[in-house]
What does this fold into?
Amino acid sequence: MGSNVRKIVQGICLILFCLLLGAADNGASFGLPPDLFLRSDPLAGTTVPLIARAVIPALLPAVFVLLLAVLAGRLFCGWFCPMGTTLDIIGSMVRRILQIEKNKRRRTSDPVPRSIRYFALAVILTAAFCRANLVFWASPIPLTTRLYALVLHPLGLDGISQGLEAVSPLLEWLGAVDWLYWTPDTRQFHTAWFVGAFWIVLAALERIRPRFWCRYLCPAGALLGLFSRFAFWRRYVSADCTACGRCSAQCPAGILHDNPALSQPAECLACQACVSACKPKAVHFGLNSGTPAFSSPPQRFFPSRRTFCASVIAGATLGSLSRLDILQCSAITTEALVRPPGSRPETAFLNRCLRCGECMKACPTGGLQPTWFQAGLSGMFTPFLNPRSGACKQDCTLCGAVCPTQAIHALPLKEKQWAKIGTAVIDRKSCLAWAEDRRCMVCKENCPYGAVDVVVQKGHIAPVPVVHESRCYGCGFCEKHCPKKKSAILVKSAGALRLNAPMFEKTAKTAGLELDPRRHQGIIIGPDAENHSMPPGFLE
Amino acid sequence: MRRRDFLKLQVAAALSIGTAALGLPSWLSAGVSPDIAVVKGNPAAATRAAVELLGGMSTFVKPGQKVIIKPNMSFTADIASATNTHPEVVRELLIMCMEAGAGTVRVLDHAFQTGMQPLELSGILAACNSVMRGVCHNLTHERHYHETRLDGAQEMKTNAVMTDVLEADVLIAAPVAKTNTSTGVSLSLKGQMGLILDRSVMHWRYDLDTAIVDLSFKLKPALAVIDASRVLSANGPYGPGKVLTPGEIIASADPVAADAMAVASYEWYGRRIQPRQVAHIAQAHARGLGRMDIEKMNVRRLSL
It folds into this structure.
């Protein structure tokens, strides 16, 4: 029974996770923060404040998850974690396809040491002490968010689009006009194949052992394990146990093969599969302490002192290397890297960013994309604005609003409108007007800030565009719409405001920026009537 | 048809009978329609009257035919900005097409941005939905387009055109009158750029004016209704710029003549401009797509 209740809870959590993620780009979130699950990630909630050396109130739900572990063990892993649920679904599919019978006795030996996740945890925490962010490589909720936001959601939409196209004659016949024209806002994300490949590996590992990730690799699970070693609510086995081994065969954590009576909260996912499997009903979860049927010393899956020392050294080394990487990358490579509006200064930004992809999912134009190596190895999968896939809308504040760690500040619209993200630069060697004397002002037409002017320039037959840097926000509408195959107007990060304290309006005004589109209304370009040359676009 | 629409129809019919009775020139009562109609009045009534002057919508749309109306609805701006066609103009055209017995009517554009937002902000989506749900769409996805040879083209010999447009029997251009920094003005010929998938190529590969005419040979509207209720006389097509309010609707079966009439009728950047000073209009005339010599044409003016 307990096992079925768990599956229902798991299903509800996964659906809620998907709904919150799906609604990230329209602000509807059922009264919950859209990044609720990300904020609950115990590993992120522990390490990010440590890296940032700051209290992050938004991450409070993670504290509750840790407290839950103290009370009831790894209930989070077995019942709530969307990664665990996803792996359960993938695992059951993999096992069904490969026809690994459900009731066949599962292999229970450990193919790899269980201490790996503790090792990973120690590395990540040590690096966090050294102020370096390695948490994004292994934190479960960001990894899951990335899968759903950057891979499954676009794939699903594309599938729907293809499906609608396939049945379009039917829709026409039925007169379902809205469906006939409805096109999902399909978008593609860089690095999506990598995320997909990562999960294919996890699926393959499910073939080896169920919940392979949770058993052996997940550092968040290790952290919850540490907190749940003395959990109050745990598994008890009465003297009715016949040592038949059925529970051991069903246990997704694979911890019951040596001693089915032994309760190991640090390893147990509290899934209660053993309760359902037990014929004599000898197993139950509760607060009371039944007398164990067998007595034997608890198994130790904790790493040895030697391994622990090694992991600390590894963490410190990786952390230092990561910091060096950030320093040298932010010095040389970020010119073309436009960060989302309201991003913190580069180092603080990288320290906080979980690479969850929530901002990319939320971005209504699809402009935010994950980096590969543009920001260095330490900056992989962080968001940047790629205007060719979508520009930054002037009336939108979503990317900051959904950022769980506030690597991107959640700004009110009035403040965000001053959070300059970059400056457009015209490549005069390829611009149609500058280089080919053609009458093209698409960049001017599309600029919401009135930052592009077309001027008559000596030596040029056609009027040519120029950018007013103090009026340019870096939104990228010009770059998006430039008719050249490779845009001749490019947004660079120069002039971007990157602040730790969200005082963008004040800073921008102090810097003399004029980022208020309304101020440029009514400015007439081109020569006026007294001038003898023709207004733009007309012949003599 | 709703009661209000029915009343409008009655008014228009009474109006046309009334004006005929008042001793109109013989060519009109003899059934000779003018080449160009210019009607001053509120947008909906002027639209209806202008089309009635040309012989009524049934001259252009036969029962059961598929009609595409192409307004400007690309810009996320309000009516006063004069960057989009007035919703009442589009609504009236839609009603008239339905009255003429059109089988299918669609109001389509390839807006700069994906999604329905520009259509909503222009007011055109709501105006269309008030007549019939689901006719107004912004087609930005390539699945709605079909690669097509553009017959009669000099430069742009091929592009992907909206499948709906290729299937249509009647194409109605319903642009707002405005300036364009690249082509001088953006009227019914230039507006046809909103019916293809790849506009960029017209800028970077071809001569823009030639490509516009190339496109117009394939996508020549049977009826051009230019909304000059407001005219964006400078800083178009995006604006903001100086907006004139002539309160007129210009209609013609010849899109070149309609465009030429609009150019000649208003001040652009505070100046008088001849149709021949707009490169794509001059070229359309020279290549025989239509006529820009409006002084030699039959123009009928009406003030409501």
Residues 1-32 of chain B form one domain.
